[in-house]
Design brief:
Number of strands: 22
Structural class: alpha/beta
Helix content: 25-40%
Number of helices: 25
Strand order of the largest sheet: 13-22-21-18-17-16-15-14
Shape: elongated
């Protein structure tokens, strides 16, 4: 078949087998040694003759002789049985303008997957260690480009959408820049689906180091002789597998990327040794939740303002079936197709960076395989009824159900099923079960903002304090720990701009803070993020250090700070604190040096300390500092300002002022003081005199001294009250009387 010939019918593409010399000299072979090929369909209109969709097929991989003996994914182990024409299917390959309005009449290049190596292998000889198969996925792509040049010498793409699913999605990550180099005059953009994998890991420490559980490595197998792009190889020398781990690989890409990825992926669960088809255990659920946190954190990095990338990430437990044009759920009322089109064509017609956040897995309840966003019945009642009759008992049964659908396609169309909308039928076959699908009640973070009181116009602007040259910190900030997270989204809606967190509060709290920031839509420069990294061992925080030793013992403070910023989804924190002194001053100084490097590298606007008393501050300064601490955060309140051990005393306050260090108070309502501040007669008397609450009086006593307060609450009414604490001033006599409690 000639490369430019039109298929017998629209919707079908012609098989182009690779020339014999490409098979032999370029090693362009399928797993069984047969020569490869591709399917081509020419554009249906001359005006789109230079526009091209390239699709890399997926279908798993094999890493052992046992696995490779039975592998039959994608287009199978060899090309002998490939048909001369092939219906390319739906989504970006569809020729139906109602399904695929933007790309339906473009040239289509479909690359079958027959190499079991995620399109990566460069072997010219069979691998005896893996059962005698050829692993030549990269060779097949290289030969496909050569064959195109031979068969269509006039083809000069101007605009290219590079896509692929699952293993094909990983192939896209590996080859995006490769395709761009092949067509230097073209604009090439990549949109992988369900290929944004991570290594299978047992802890956050392993994840950040790229150390996967050895038996379940998701990266590239050395026996494949995998291709790695020069940019990625230079970025991660000697660590080729990082070039398939999405958290690392995207950083090496020059090609714009649009990631289509479920936050909770059944394939990820399977690769970690869990069975997503069975009821999820508590361990499975915990592990999968961590995947979701990593996905959201990585996507926030990928979609920062400095990158050309976009993403669409439903909060679903699925692999690829729901990432098609028609099957994808809406996120904040926007379809995946509209989001991708806005990114690809740069129209700005829809958000190009969308990730659901409706709480932890599962988003709206339900179990394995459910997707909380798909509508209860995306198919008509007549269609579903006929499906139940013709394919009785096969709903949610995958391939068996799909085969039944194909055998009855015309009958189903006659009963109202879509003639081209195969993804909707795949929805019927791919999940739901008796429980159906849950519609997500989308909220911002896990915090209910429906009951927010309207922001009062009378609320004053939050005062700030200068903590370093050019760095202004709000005089009140919202904190919260693992056991008592605050309502960060409500805080931002009510006018709060300072958020305080810490690595030791738990990854879930860090992600909640980051998600609230991302969902707020506020400019980053309007917000102030404080975080803290631990120092262990520590005399006063031994119980917290037990957890730290398990997860982070081998990481220096610089790396811990990088983990912290990634969980928050920001490239820079405004203030990074050393959470407490180490067991020795030598260890304390060494850890503080890492924070100095973090600041000098532009990753923190200011650094500081926490729980340091006056003598510890003197000892730290005696070591000689490049970047002095901007803030010391300690427990400080009415009734709680006389304990020197952790800096909760007036001597420490005076020392900070002497050294030019801003003083910050956590627990400003007296929770650590041993005094019931909010019911103390003297506090209540002052509150009554100003027609304010006791909590507002306690906060104002702190902030009126120029001390930065860090409050915490999940109640929107309490948050509004805290922000309103600047609307009055205490008299000198009142300040003195409250200080004497």
């Amino acid at each position: 078949d000639a490369c430019g010939s039109q298929p017998e019918s629209m919707g079908h593409a012609s098989l182009i087998r690779l020339d014999a010399d490409l098979v032999t000299s370029a090693g362009a072979r399928c797993l069984d040694g047969s020569g490869g090929g591709f399917y081509w369909r020419a554009a249906s209109s001359a005006q789109n003759g230079t526009k091209l969709v390239v699709f890399l097929q997926g279908g798993g991989e094999c890493r052992s002789a046992t696995e490779c003996a039975v592998w039959d994914g994608g287009a199978g182990r060899g090309s002998a049985g490939w048909p001369k024409t092939k219906r390319l299917g739906e989504d970006e390959l569809s020729d139906d303008s109602s399904v695929n309005p933007h790309f339906h009449d473009w040239n289509k290049l479909f690359v079958p997957y027959c190499s079991a190596d995620m399109h990566s292998g460069t072997r010219l000889t069979p691998s005896h260690a893996l059962g005698g198969g050829y692993f030549a996925g990269h060779n097949l792509i290289n030969a496909t480009l050569a064959q195109l040049r031979r068969s269509l010498p006039a083809l000069a793409p101007s605009l290219v959408l590079l896509s692929g699913s699952s293993a094909g999605g990983i192939g896209v990550l590996l080859h995006a820049d490769y395709f761009a180099a092949a067509w230097p005059a073209a604009t090439v953009k990549a949109a992988p689906a369900a290929g944004f994998f991570y290594p299978a890991v047992s802890s956050e420490r392993d994840f950040i180091n790229g150390d996967a559980t050895p038996a379940r490595r998701l990266g590239l197998a050395a026996e494949w002789a995998p291709y790695v792009s020069p940019r990625c190889a230079a970025l991660y020398p000697g660590e080729a597998s990082k070039c398939t781990d999405a958290a690392f690989a995207w950083r090496a890409l020059a090609t714009p990327l649009f990631v289509r990825e479920n936050q909770y992926d059944t394939a990820k669960l399977a690769n970690c040794g869990c069975d997503a088809s069975a009821a999820l255990t508590a361990n499975d659920t915990s592990y999968l939740r961590q995947w979701g946190r990593w996905v959201r954190g990585t996507l926030r990095d990928l979609g920062s303002e400095a990158t050309p990338h976009g993403y669409f990430a439903p909060s679903c437990l699925s692999h690829a079936a729901n990432l098609g044009w028609s099957a994808a759920p809406l996120i904040r009322g926007v379809s995946m197709l509209d989001s991708l089109a806005a990114w690809f064509f740069e129209t700005g017609g829809a958000p190009a960076r969308l990730a659901d956040d409706c709480g932890e897995l599962p988003c709206g309840g339900g179990g394995g395989g459910s997707c909380p966003h798909l509508p209860q019945d995306p198919l008509s009642r007549a269609c579903v009824g006929r499906l139940a009759e013709l394919c009785h008992g096969l709903r949610g049964r995958g391939d068996a159900c799909d085969a039944c659908l194909e055998s009855h396609v015309h009958d189903l169309e006659a009963h109202g099923c879509p003639s081209r909308g195969r993804p909707l039928l795949r929805w019927y076959c791919g999940g739901g079960g008796a429980g159906g699908h849950h519609v997500c009640d989308v909220r911002i973070g896990t915090n209910d903002v429906a009951s927010l009181p309207p922001p009062s116009e009378a609320l004053p602007r939050i005062p700030t304090v200068t903590i370093a040259p050019g760095v202004e910190m709000p005089l009140i900030n919202l904190g919260g720990v693992h056991s008592h997270p605050s309502n960060y989204s409500a805080w931002l809606q009510l006018g709060g701009r300072g958020l305080d967190t810490a690595m030791m509060y738990g990854d879930d709290v860090q992600v909640q803070v980051g998600d609230a920031v991302a969902a707020s839509g506020l400019p980053r420069e309007e917000l102030f993020l404080t975080s803290k990294v631990p120092c262990c061992p520590a005399e006063s925080f031994t119980s917290w250090c037990v957890w730290y030793d398990k997860e982070y013992k081998d990481l220096d403070a610089y790396t811990r700070s990088e983990i912290d910023a990634r969980l928050l989804g920001v490239g820079r924190v405004d203030l990074l604190l050393l959470h407490w002194p180490c067991a020795t001053m030598e260890e304390t100084v060494a850890t503080y040096r890492s924070l100095e490097r973090f600041a000098l590298d532009g990753k923190a606007s200011a650094i500081g300390i926490s729980n340091f008393n006056a003598s510890a501050i003197d000892a730290l300064f005696a070591a000689g500092l490049t970047v002095p601490p901007a803030v010391n955060q300690v427990g400080f309140s009415i009734g709680g300002h006389s304990e020197s051990r952790l800096g909760r005393d007036l001597d420490t306050l005076r020392k900070c002022r002497e050294k030019g260090i801003a003083f910050s108070a956590y627990s400003p309502l007296g929770g650590l003081s041993g005094v019931d501040v909010l019911h103390h007669p003297r506090v209540l008397k002052v509150a009554a005199a100003h027609n304010r609450s006791a909590a507002q009086v306690a906060l104002r006593w702190v902030t009126q001294q120029g001390v930065v307060a860090v409050s915490a609450s999940s109640n929107p009414a309490h948050l509004a009250s805290d922000l309103g604490s600047f609307s009055f001033n205490l008299t000198g006599a009142e300040m003195k009387a409250l200080a004497e409690i």
